[in-house]
């Protein structure tokens, strides 16, 4: 008995500390959590960087439509000794003969026509940019679903903590009442001991739920890149469901909005351009080249010629045609493989579309089932609440035992926690359905 009293005292001190700590808690709304995730989540940042890379790739600087301009310059220096021995004359010995030359040029190369390969490659890069945006959207959707699942788990545990606090408070009142009854000889010590055991059990359940709540809050902090050991916070426990008619409209348009199907559309467009790019190998290429050059040469005198200096400059240009009449069948194989790849993309889209229709049907069934359970649990809570209040009156009047009252208390506890679970399970099922219909980022959570 003495040991139980100490445990109750420790738990009471712990709860008093929590009460004072809650005065400084901040409230993170759903909108704030989403904004923080979009700003700080590492997965979303990486996805946005991938989009930026794709945007750079689809720009004019990576299109192949611009010419290449190169500059060249060079210098040569010679220092020689020369001995000239003519057959009918006197030998000429020259020491330290210097000669040098300098050159510089600017060269331009441009492909006028490459069988339209460059044109279709540019179009393909545009499609790849759109694909990268869809991939980023998929990352954001997955992150939002993970975020809201964690957010609503915090909300559920928060409400469970409130329920357990109410249960503990009632159990403590029962201990006080049992102690008074024992002191005045109205009951035996067993009633007091049973009441204290129930307090201890309720206290342990509350401590465990608080620990789960704190752990889940840390998980959310990691997802939002917040300080894990920072100031405590609470969340908004309000849950609103989308009207049935609006949800049905979303389902009707699911195949035009689902991000996976949209990505497959972009992949098919890219593959179609791959076929055209491969066919460009059948056509010739026409290249244009031009340059402006400057040269300077200085040579030393010889036995037969005087030294000279020569400077030249000028422009030159040309057009060349290159037509690979037969490449051993490589181009033909590339075209055939590209066509087969396109057929595979079509088959893959049909397969994914079929799976998504199934997933939507399953998600809708899960959502409707959980929503029904939620409504049933609301009625169940109302019934158990009425039963508990009646049992409490009867217990206070001494008409039922503490065991019967405890059973009514446990039934109400189970009903309220089951209601919390059903409510948030239904909301998460709704979010999963919204993701499949492509509307997760378009509605107010």
UniProtKB/TrEMBL annotation:
A single Gene Ontology MF term assigned here is: efflux transmembrane transporter activity
Record's keyword annotation contains Transmembrane: yes
What Gene3D superfamilies does UniProt report for this protein, alphabetically?
Outer membrane efflux proteins (OEP) (1.20.1600.10)
Chief location bin? membrane
Q: Which InterPro entries does UniProt cross-reference here?
A: OMP_efflux, TolC-like
Its localization reads: Cell outer membrane
**GO CC, one annotated term:** cell outer membrane
Q: Which UniProt keywords apply?
A: Cell outer membrane, Membrane, Transmembrane, Transmembrane beta strand, Transport
Q: Which PANTHER family match?
A: OUTER MEMBRANE PROTEIN TOLC
Q: What does the similarity note say? A: Belongs to the outer membrane factor (OMF) (TC 1.B.17) family.
Report what the protein is called: Transporter
Q: What is the lineage of its organism?
A: Bacteria, Pseudomonadati, Bacteroidota, Flavobacteriia, Flavobacteriales
